[in-house]
Amino acid sequence: AYPQAGALLMSHAWDAPDNWSKYFKAQQFADAKQIQVATGLHHAKKRGLAPEGRQMRVWVDCASLPDAVDQVDHPLEKIEYGPFLLPVRELKRLVAPVPGEAPAVFTELRLDEAMKYDSTMEIRTFDNQGRPSKEAETRQVQWEILPGWWQVRSARVVSAYRLSPEGAAAMDQFLPSMEQLQQWCVRLGLKDEIWVEFTIGTLRTESLNLTDTMIGLHGGMLAVVSWNYFDRLWPLCEWAIFCNRVGPGRVQLAADCFTGAALVEFHRVVRRLSITGAACRDERDRRLLLAFLEREFNCGFEHKTQCFRKPAPGVLTAAVTERVVDFAPLERYIRATAIAVFAREAALFGSRRLTYDDESGWTELANTLKLRELHGVLKKSKPWDWYEDAKRQVQRDPPAAPAADAEQDLEATAELAVAEAEETAYKERVEAWWTGLVLP
């Protein structure tokens, strides 16, 4: 993780859950979600999930990705477009220059409208001594690049103008992970008349290919959890990979607007959680995300026989098998981390009444799902005891008398200071339980 960058991953489900109007008759889902996001960001900043003094940057799944350039713009369909031919003179105009000391990052092409190219390329023959012929054959070069946000994937010098095939082959090919395209042209000393063949891919596809890596680079995750959150594959994938790479201690839950009367729905969604049964709008995304999860958690698999068929007349019957991945251990992991994070939130914002230590039911749910170790540490959550201890602590060591203007009520100001001190002491007890018992 790189929390110094100040980036938060906002994980959420776009659609309103079923039965929303049953629990929230007077409030629209979008309005409640907006309030929840603002509240969650405030709590995330207070917890230090983004560094002090820096603007918080939030990555919001597809809203932070460029649009697809066409219907096949997806890692499982098409990752490379081209090749395209262009002289170095035109290539320099197409690609923005970068400082000489710039780090090796994507060489970007941002096209607001389609780019069309139509020209001719001179091709010469060469004798045994490498001398070009006087006469040149012309070759028509025509292509079009769709509007979008692109990055250069490969480039090489081709034999054209007065450069022989051997001379072109001897030049280094462009390596996008090592340098910018402009730097490559300068390093090779390419003249403006030299022709280059290059391929491009979209930043969208590159980002999707690096989904697991990008999730792990965020300093914190704001999980806006409604009761359909764990029914969707994208949020499931984000939650699982983030908790595995960064840790559930860096998750800020944003769900208090959605609980209350709807608490039972949150218990139900954790119970019915299913990796293979989770919904996904794009079936291509499903295959991509399942592959990420299988690799990330080293899930086991087996080939199960579905039926028997004769491949052709006169051929013996053969078994038709299907590769089945065992996601059960991963589902158990997601349930455990989800219950733990919800239990922390319940301890922080519960009523703290006597005999109401598990008023939200997360401890009992852990027991029902046979999460024995988690159940044991959740039973040690004692909000009423902790709150009473916090009040006694403040009584022993009261806060300093607050400064107040003549118009202010000194008694009310003092009571507010005491309440704030009690709240601070209580939250310290919750965090000690969370970091000392639950997270390990």
Describe this structure in words.
- The strands form 4 sheets. The chain has a 4-stranded parallel β-sheet with strand order 2-1-9-10, sandwiched between helices. A 4-stranded antiparallel β-sheet has the order 3-8-7-4. Strands 5-6 form a two-stranded antiparallel ribbon.
- Helix content is 39%, strand content 19%.
- It is an alpha/beta fold and 440 residues long.
- The mean pLDDT is 89.
- α11 packs antiparallel against α12 and α14 packs across α15.
- It has 15 helices and 12 strands.
- The two termini are 18 Å apart.
Offer a quick outline of the entry.
By secondary structure, the protein is α/β, with parallel strands linked by helices. The chain has helices spanning 20-23, 29-46, 88-94, 165-169, 181-188, 203-209, 211-216, 233-245, 263-271, 283-296, 328-349, 362-368, 372-378, 383-396, 410-438; strands spanning 7-12, 57-59, 81-87, 108-111, 115-123, 137-145, 148-157, 195-202, 220-224, 251-254, 301-309, 318-325.
Biggest sheet architecture: 4 strands, parallel
How far the N terminus sits from the C terminus, by CA atoms, comes to 18 Å
Strand content: 15-25%
Strands in their spatial order, largest beta sheet? 2-1-9-10
Order of helices and strands: EHHEEHEEEEHHEHHEHEHHEEHHHHH
C-alpha Rg (nearest Å): 30 Å
Structural class estimated from helices and strands: alpha/beta
Number of helices: 15
> Mean pLDDT, nearest integer?
89
Question: What's the shape?
Answer: elongated
Low-confidence stretches: none
